[in-house]
Amino acid sequence: MTTTPKIRNSRLPPMERRADIMAAARSVIAEKGHENISLSEIAQRAGIVEGTLYRFFENKQEMLSTVVAEWYREVTENAPSVESIRGTWNKLRSLIARDLKIIKEHPELTRFILAEIRPDPTYTKTIFYKLNRRYADEIKNLCAEAIEKGEFRDDVSPNLLRDMVFGCIEHSTWAYLRGAGDFPLDETADGIANVVYEGMLKQRPTTPSDLAQIAERLETITSNLEKKLQQP
């Protein structure tokens, strides 16, 4: 038997009503994707009639953008800090893993931003850009510090390094986002961190293989000197 959705008390304060709508919209996006949502289902979950939605949002797109912006703000602001982590590689790897974890746990949020928000010509004027800029600048600033203290080479800009990191992240997760596969979070984070860190090191650490080659050369030089000293 079909039942009519229960309509909640219409006298709820506007802020509480709006919060209900935002929560309902977010749950529908998370379950069905932003392409497949309907305003009637959001209204039903919020316990209101569909027309009430337009008291808070001009249209579907405005509601989606508002919901996802708040969602993205919450995710980025609650992301763990790396301030207590020591070492450039460790911090870099943690920042990369943090972003991969967000993508893994919130694929619909990521898909909406990549498909609907970023291609918009006005993207740089949106709250999404401001939030993402602040988030992405952590990697840029980390690389700038490594360059300043002489750990990284100074012939590549921090901006380019930041773009390389996020480019690697996007390409590594795109199959997952379109529902065509998965990605190993730890392995991917290690790989991206290693490529950037080892490629940027000003002085590469000496490996056992390097030491063996140095020892072999020293032995050759010593042998040649001994031969020359033995000559009359």
Describe this structure in words.
This protein has 9 helices and no strands. It has helices spanning 14-32, 39-46, 60-77, 88-105, 107-117, 127-148, 158-177, 185-200, 208-230. The termini are far apart.
CATH class of the largest domain: Mainly Alpha
Query: Topology as H/E string?
Result: HHHHHHHHH
The number of helical runs is 9
Radius of gyration: 27 Å
Structure classification: mainly alpha
Explain the layout of strands and helices.
Elements: H1 14-32, H2 39-46, H3 60-77, H4 88-105, H5 107-117, H6 127-148, H7 158-177, H8 185-200, H9 208-230
Short description:
67% of the residues lie in helices and 0% in strands. It has 2 domains: 1-57, Homeodomain-like (Arc Repressor Mutant, subunit A, Orthogonal Bundle), CATH 1.10.10.60; 73-200, Tetracycline Repressor, domain 2 (Orthogonal Bundle).
Task: List the keywords.
232 residues; mainly alpha; Arc Repressor Mutant, subunit A; Tetracycline Repressor, domain 2; 9 helices; 0% strand; elongated; disordered N terminus
